[in-house]
Design brief:
With 186 residues, the protein is an alpha+beta fold. The protein is built from eight helices and six strands. The strands form two sheets. The protein has a four-stranded mixed sheet. A two-stranded antiparallel sheet has the order 2-6. β3 (85-88) and β4 (94-99) form a beta hairpin. The longest helix is centred in the N-terminal third of the chain and has 14 residues, at 52-65. The radius of gyration is 18 Å and the shape is elongated.
Length: 186
């Protein structure tokens, strides 16, 4: 078993990955497409010090220590605990493991471990998807990224995300939270 068998959506679950994504040289069309895959609900974002590869390696070592070396063994192990397991990594963060559905075409190397941060765990914050998408778009297009300007954010939300504008006098606390989180990682 290798880290290749662990599916981890780092752009939805790892704050440093989002920051690297914003600063990357990917074409803007690719970035816009990727941002739209964040979904419309909410998700848990890891904010701790571990890099993606560190997380994958630590989870792999835990699985190996548990004797989990194949899809069949993993499925049995997961199903013995109501379809999920939680593991704790070196920074005390908790991570949830679930079974990834098998691919339509058999691939013995395909990922079967679906990994994401556990809810309300150490170094984890719950974020609304539209707030994350909005702030990422803002950081990509705004000329002044030191301050969050709601009027400018509304233009980007409408033009790039097909989201309705926010009431500039309304509650924008979730947006401010995500803005502060992404800004602190720069």
């Amino acid at each position: 078993m290798t880290t290749r068998q662990i599916l981890f959506h780092h752009l939805k679950h790892h704050i440093s990955s989002v920051q690297h994504f914003i600063q990357s040289s990917l074409p803007i069309e690719n970035k816009l497409h990727t941002i739209k895959t964040f979904g419309g609900s909410q998700f848990d974002m890891y904010t701790g010090p571990l890099e993606v590869e560190d997380i994958l390696q630590e989870v792999l070592q835990i699985l190996i220590q548990q004797g989990v070396t194949s899809r069949t063994i993993f499925e049995t192990w997961i199903n013995a605990n109501k379809g999920f397991r939680e593991v704790t990594l070196s920074d005390k963060s908790s991570w949830t493991l679930r079974i990834q559905p098998a691919p339509a075409v058999a691939d013995p190397g395909a990922a079967f471990v679906h990994l994401h941060p556990s809810r309300y765990a150490v170094n984890t914050i719950r974020i609304k998807a539209n707030a994350m998408k909005s702030i990422v778009i803002y950081l990509l297009f705004a000329t002044d990224t030191a301050t969050l300007h709601t009027d400018q954010l509304n233009i980007f939300r409408e033009n790039y995300l097909d989201l309705s504008p926010l009431d500039v006098t309304g509650n924008v606390e979730e947006l401010k939270k995500v803005f502060a989180l992404l800004s602190s990682k720069q």
